[in-house]
Amino acid sequence: MRFTLAAMALLAVLCGCSDTDGNPAPAVDATMLCVSSECGERTVLLDIPSAENLVFSDDGRLFVSSGVGVFEIVQDADGQFARQLISEARGYTGLAVKGDVLYAIGGDGAVWATRLDAPQLQVIHTMTGMCIANGTAVGADGNLYIVDEPLNLCVPDPKIKRLTLDPGDPFKVAHEEVWVQGSELGLLSFGVGNTLRFPNGLQADGTRFFGTDGGSIYHVDLLPDGSAGAVTPIFFEVDVHDDLGLVDDGVLLANFLTGRISLISRDGELLQATAPGVFSFPSSVRLGRPPMFAPTDIVVTETGVLLDNNLPLDQLSVFRRRP
Fold first, then answer.
1. Which residues of the chain fall short of a pLDDT of 70?
2. Residues 6 or more apart from 288 whose CB is under 8 A from it?
């Protein structure tokens, strides 16, 4: 996500004290992964201005959102990576895949979608009452869940919205509602309580959603009646977590503030982490998928210098075990 002035204030306070996107995750156990500078290394694949979030389709196609559009990432016969624009040249945040449809979220609340067989995003809906629409996931009910992150000059109203999709038309939103309501007085970002304040990343595994909020990681369950269970914090550290990715028995974190990625268990134990500063403001993290990546590769988007798309620090990279 794109951190603004309000976000920088949050960073300052913290210092003083982004798997499923609707498609199955690779079967990778946390013990199989290298998420440490002692065993692995980062390789830059290509530059993407204001790189935001990433998502894989079931067959391993990779899509990346950014401040200048949504790209499909392709690889040629020589192993070189390139980007192909599949959207208007504007800013996008959350991404999710459901079946053969890619959904992309604009920070302004616009919802874009396209079939994967001929990807070209088109607006299908615009959400109301959003500050910065961001982390996006497909729930077990087949609907879209989208975080609203109050970081711009707007009245703080942190929440997770649910967009009910028409069962017969994946390009039609039948209903929009608030699923989890946060508060401008929430302190979850600072490891206190369980009220959302700066929600950001969101991923789903069955009926359980995992999310980030400042220094905290939490989960919240989709109950049988469609309502949300209690927001349950599982991990806190003095950092700002952007997006997150899921492993069979763990959670990968993009540690935006400290420039690293880390791996925690699903009950909140820190298992591994790279050294600080390995990445340039990492914004999302996912396990790789064939054919372009090994299942144990960790693919990362890096936002780079805030509000600057011109420096060569906004990148797509991969972290993998050294030979």
1. 1-26, 304-312
2. 26, 56, 294, 295, 296, 297, 298, 299, 318
Per-residue pLDDT of 37-79, as tens digits, reads 999 999 999 999 999 999 999 999 999 999 999 999 999 999 9
Question: What pLDDT score was predicted for residue 4?
Answer: 42
Give the integer Cα–Cα distance in Å for 36 and 272: 6
What DSSP letter does each residue of 68-87 carry, written as one string?
TEEEEEEE-TTS-EEEEE-S
What is the C-alpha separation between 96 and 81, in angstroms, rounded?
Answer: 22
Which residue in 181, 230, 178 sits closest to 208, CA to CA?
230
Strands of 31-100, DSSP E: 40-47, 51-56, 62-66, 69-75, 81-85, 92-98
Contact (Cβ atoms closer than 8 angstroms) between residue 74 and residue 116: no
Query: Which of 243, 234, 235, 248 has its CA nearest to residue 261?
Result: 243
H helical segments located in 17-75:
none
- Any long-range contacts for 59-65 (C-beta under 8 Å, 24+ apart)? 60/289, 60/290, 60/291, 60/292, 60/293, 61/116, 62/289, 62/292, 62/299, 63/95, 63/97, 63/102, 63/104, 63/119, 64/95, 64/301, 64/316, 65/92, 65/93, 65/94, 65/95, 65/104, 65/105
**Domain 5-321 -> CATH class:** mainly beta
**Tens digits of residue pLDDT in 77-109:** 999 999 999 999 999 999 999 999 999 999 999
The amino acid sitting at 44 is V
Q: What is the pLDDT, as a whole number, of residue 109? A: 96
Cβ atoms of 298 and 39 closer than 8 Å: no
The SS3 assignment for 287 reads: strand
Q: Which two tokens stand for residue 156?
A: 């703080």
Separation CA 139–CA 234 (nearest Å)? 20
